[in-house]
Write a structure and sequence with these properties.
Blueprint (H helix, E strand, L loop, with lengths): L1 H29 L12 E3 L3 E3 L1 E2 L4 E10 L6 E5 L7 E6 L2 E6 L8 E6 L4 E10 L17 E6 L20 H4 L4 E4 L1
Parallel strand pairs: 2-11
Antiparallel strand pairs: 1-4, 3-4, 4-9, 5-8, 6-7, 6-10, 10-11
Length: 184
């Protein structure tokens, strides 16, 4: 009788192991592949996939990025105390929308100046409350997972010493990053 019971337990353990393996393989097969890296983007993230961690107040992620000025002109980035954090844009149905904008002090410091060939690197520390929250900053959409890119709205190719001239905005292709995934 003991042999029959042991054989039954062994068979059940094998079935459970196969079931667990099937679940793992299914999860891997259903995982969204990251987008291909756009090596031509001047603004680059360090990876193609980042994890959003949920806590009691919202979502958090850490996204290292770099910008290499290959525009041929000096790039000027308006800021407050050196804060040049880009916004997060999310792709929805083939269009891009601002999904998260970092809270920033509205002061006006001298712009960050990047001559041709210079680089700038930093880390975007994202905290975003759920959409509709009374906390700021908050994500614009309830569904936070998706394909994202970084964007500098106000990076310009000339500076008059007092203000940003919207006509001198860098072309969009020079102000956006490669695409990447944010997932929970």
């Amino acid at each position: 009788m003991r042999e029959v019971t042991r054989a039954r337990h062994t068979r059940d353990a094998r079935r459970a192991g196969r079931f667990l393996l099937a679940l793992v393989l299914l999860a891997v097969a259903c995982e969204t592949p990251p987008p291909e890296r756009d090596a031509g983007a001047l603004l680059q993230t360090s990876a193609l996939r980042y994890t959003l961690r949920r806590d009691a107040l919202g979502y958090r992620a850490t996204i290292p990025w770099s910008f290499h000025n290959e525009t041929g002109d000096t790039v000027w980035i308006p800021n407050c105390g050196g804060d040049v954090r880009p916004v997060l844009q999310v792709e929805r149905k083939g269009a891009w929308f601002d999904a998260w904008t970092p809270f920033a002090d509205p002061c006006a410091s001298p712009p960050v100046m990047l001559p041709p060939g210079d680089s700038l690197a930093d880390t975007l520390h994202v905290f975003g409350a759920p959409a509709g929250s009374n906390l700021v900053p908050a994500f614009a959409f309830e569904e936070v997972e998706g394909t994202y890119r970084l964007l500098w709205h106000r990076a310009v190719s000339s500076w008059d010493g007092d203000a940003v001239d919207p006509a001198s905005a860098l072309p969009l292709a020079q102000r956006i990053s490669n695409r990447f995934l944010l997932e929970r």
